[in-house]
Specification:
This protein is an alpha/beta fold. The chain has 7 helices and 19 strands. The protein folds into 2 domains: 179 residues, FAD/NAD(P)-binding domain, CATH 3.50.50; 106 residues, FAD/NAD(P)-binding domain (3-Layer(bba) Sandwich), CATH 3.50.50.60. The strands form 5 sheets. Strands 1, 2, 3, 4, 5, 6 and 19 form a 7-stranded mixed β-sheet that branches. The chain has a 5-stranded parallel β-sheet with strand order 8-15-9-10-11. Bound molecules: flavin-adenine dinucleotide.
C-alpha cells in the first residue's frame, strides 16, 4: 500500500479526519479539488474561535496545520474513481493511481439552486440556505424565503426569528390550511406571485412587476454528493430531505468496512463545526480500522 489512508476531500471534514490520523503518525494522502461548498461566501459564522472569518482563510489555516505533520501528503486534483482490492483501496486520479488501506470520503455536496435569474450570482452574498450561518447579520431586516417545495415551509416558519418574513411561493407549492395558520401564527406574510428575477442586493421582481426589497433571501437548494465514488464503491446511501447522503454509523463507518465518510457528504445537513466534529470521528475510526480491522 502507498498510504495507510487516503482522504478524498481536503476541506473541514477531510482535514479534521487527516489531523487525527497524522497525530497517530499514520501515512495519509489527501486528494482535493478545491471546490468547497461555502467558497461563494465572504464570511463564515457559527464555528467557535473563527466566527465571522473568511471561510477560505479558515480552510487555509487548517490545511497549514495539518500539512505540518510529516506523514501527510497533499494532491491538488479530482479523484476520478476508486475500487476495493485485496487489503485496501485504489484511487484513480487522471492517469495515476494510489493505494491505501483505509479510505475517508469527505467530498461534501454540490448545491443545485432554483433557476431564477439573478439568484446564482447572489448565492452566499445575499441569498443563503442556513439561517444560523447568515441570519444574524441581516440585523432583523426583512427576509424573503423562496419556496422550492413544501419543505420550504419549515424555512418560512423558522425565519421570523431573524426578521419580518415574506414567504415567496413562486409556484412551488400551495400551503394547506393548517400551514397557513402556522405561518400566520409565526407572522410570515405570503406572496403567491411568481418571481421574475432578483436584482440589486436582494430585490425580488415579481411577475406582475412589483419589486420587494429584502435584507436577505433564503432558499433550500437540492444537494448532490459532490463525487460518485461512494456510489461506485457500493456504499449504502440514505435519502435526506434535500438529497441523498452516504449512510454511516455513529463512528462514521459506511456500509463497506474500511470506508469512512464525514461532513456534508455523510449527513442530511451540515456546517463547518459539524464537519470538523464529524471528520475527527472519521479519523479516529479510520485509525481504529488500521489497528484492529473491521469492528
Ligand atoms: C453559500 C454557503 C455559505 C455557508 N456558510 C456557512 C457558515 O457561515 N457557517 C457554517 O458553519 N457553514 C456554512 N456553510 C456550510 C459549509 O460550507 C459546509 O457545511 C462545509 O463546507 C462542509 O464541509 P465538508 O468538508 O464536508 O465539505 P466541503 O467544504 O464542501 O469540501 C469538500 C471538498 O472535497 C473536494 N472534493 C469533492 N469531490 C472530490 C473528488 N472527487 N476528488 C477530490 N476532491 C473532491 C471539494 O472540491 C472540496 O474541496 C455554507 C454553505 C454555503 C453553500
Amino acid at each position: 500500500m502507498d498510504y495507510e489512508a487516503i482522504v478524498i476531500g481536503g476541506s473541514y471534514a477531510g482535514l479534521s479526519a487527516t489531523l487525527q490520523l497524522a497525530r497517530a503518525r499514520r501515512r495519509v494522502l489527501v486528494i482535493d479539488e478545491g471546490l468547497r461548498r461555502n467558497r461563494f461566501a465572504e464570511h463564515s459564522h457559527g464555528f467557535l474561535t473563527r466566527d465571522g472569518e473568511n471561510p477560505t482563510a479558515i480552510a487555509a489555516k487548517a490545511r497549514a496545520q495539518v500539512m505540518a505533520y510529516p506523514t501527510v501528503e497533499w494532491l491538488d486534483a479530482r479523484a476520478d474513481a476508486a475500487a476495493k482490492d485485496q487489503g485496501g483501496f485504489t484511487v484513480s486520479v487522471a492517469d495515476r493511481s494510489f493505494t491505501g488501506k483505509a479510505l475517508v470520503l469527505a467530498t461534501g455536496v454540490k448545491d443545485h439552486l432554483p433557476d431564477i435569474p439573478g439568484l446564482g450570482e447572489r448565492w452566499g452574498r445575499s441569498v443563503f440556505h442556513c439561517p444560523y450561518c447568515h441570519g444574524y447579520e441581516l440585523d432583523r431586516g426583512p427576509v424573503g424565503v423562496i419556496a422550492v417545495s413544501s419543505l420550504s415551509l419549515h424555512h418560512a416558519l423558522m425565519l421570523p426569528d431573524w426578521g419580518p418574513t415574506t414567504f415567496l411561493l413562486n409556484g412551488a407549492f400551495e400551503p394547506e390550511e393548517n400551514a397557513m395558520r402556522e405561518l400566520s401564527r409565526r407572522g410570515a406574510a405570503i406572496e403567491a406571485n411568481p418571481i421574475r428575477a432578483i436584482e440589486n442586493h436582494a430585490d425580488v421582481v415579481l411577475g406582475d412587476g412589483r419589486r420587494l426589497s429584502f435584507a436577505g433571501l433564503f432558499t433550500m437548494p437540492r444537494t448532490e454528493i459532490a463525487s460518485p465514488i461512494a456510489e461506485q464503491l457500493g456504499c449504502a446511501l440514505e435519502d435526506g430531505p434535500m438529497g441523498a447522503f452516504i449512510g454511516t454509523d455513529a463512528m462514521k463507518q459506511t456500509s463497506i468496512p474500511g470506508i469512512l465518510a464525514c461532513g456534508d457528504a455523510a449527513r442530511a445537513a451540515g456546517s463547518v463545526a459539524i464537519s470538523v466534529g464529524d471528520g475527527a470521528m472519521a479519523g479516529a475510526a479510520a485509525h481504529r480500522y488500521l489497528m484492529f480491522g473491521a469492528p
